[in-house]
Design brief:
The structure is a single chain. The protein is α+β, with helices and mostly antiparallel strands and about 290 residues long. Helix content is about 20%, strand content about 25%. The protein is built from six helices and nine strands. Strands 1, 2, 3, 4, 5, 6, 7, 8 and 9 form a nine-stranded mixed beta sheet that branches. Strand 2 and strand 3 form a beta hairpin. Helix 3 packs parallel to helix 5. It is globular. The protein starts with 6 loop residues before the first strand and ends with a helix.
Length: about 290
């Protein structure tokens, strides 16, 4: 009986992050476990060898993903062909229900492809809600899906001015939280895009009279440092509240010191979404026999 080699797939998936400790796998005895723990329900597809998902982009507790990515090798029993892409998507989703995790699509990729290191860029969005004087005014359908900073409406033009200091290649030491990986990571990152645009809420046209405003902050880079996006959002909101001047963002960058970041200014995880992980079309169009 012919034994087929493992087939590698790039899998795109989304999740509602409030329910999980983050995307990465954790021990199963915790009160909150990782999204990856559930993805590895792929063992139910009866592969020959244990299945391991290699996640492209780490997200923290409470952070959501419209589209994250991972690669996985699946070897089937002798005589069984590799899964068709749609077949794999349906099989994984069957074993994921009723969790708020969904496999969006899958691509066969070469064995040299890596979901993390082959990525060209990652895009995050952060949802802000303005016009709430108290957290109880957040629409019930938006709880855990946005941040409503106190102090009324924000000065968006000042935030947009400040955001441009974050674009380009910089040492982002001030804008990262310290972790066990900090000594091994360069703090230099290139941010391709920072945009602040008006947005909409879930069914928000039904309560326009409340004067609530939704805004999205979009960040795109090849990679980000630990909690970099949440710290950038928090600093921009502080500008919008008049606590910092736009030029202070430039000064914070130049300090290159995480301790210089304003205390308690980091944005909460609830409004943060990994929007997409971008790959070369050539990687996704490769025909794998």
């Amino acid at each position: 009986m012919v034994v087929c080699p493992p087939a590698r797939y790039l899998v795109f998936f989304q999740y509602f992050g409030t329910r999980y400790s983050g995307v990465m796998e954790t021990s199963n005895d915790q009160s909150l476990i990782g999204v990856q723990n559930y993805l590895e329900a792929a063992q139910n597809l009866r592969p020959v060898a244990p299945v391991k998902f290699h996640i492209s982009s780490r997200t923290d507790t409470g952070v959501h993903a419209l589209c994250n990515a991972a690669h996985v090798d699946i070897q089937r029993a002798p005589g069984k062909p590799a899964f068709e892409e749609k077949q794999l998507v349906h099989g994984l989703n069957h074993h994921l229900k009723p969790e708020p995790i969904c496999i969006l699509n899958a691509h066969r990729v070469p064995s040299t492809f890596h979901a993390r290191f082959s990525a060209l860029s990652r895009t995050y969005i952060y949802r802000l809600l303005m016009g709430c004087s108290h957290h109880s005014e957040i629409p019930v359908f938006e709880r855990n899906l946005c941040w409503a900073p106190g102090g009324g409406y924000l000065n968006v033009p000042a935030m947009q001015e400040a955001a441009q200091f974050l674009v380009g290649t910089h040492d982002f030491s001030t804008f990262r939280s310290l972790s066990s990986e900090t000594p091994f990571q360069s703090p230099v990152r290139t941010v391709f895009q920072v945009d602040i645009q008006p947005s909409s809420g879930f069914l928000s046209h039904h309560y326009e009279h409340r004067g609530l405003e939704f805004w999205e902050l979009k960040f795109r880079s090849r990679s980000f440092l630990y909690r970099q996006v949440r710290r950038m959002v928090g600093a921009l909101v502080a500008v919008g509240q008049g606590k910092l001047t736009p030029h202070r963002i430039k000064e914070l960058l130049e300090l290159k010191d995480s301790r210089a970041f304003p205390p308690n200014a980091m944005a909460p995880p609830s409004g943060l979404f990994l929007k997409s992980v971008e790959y070369s079309e050539a990687d996704l169009d490769t025909k794998v026999e």
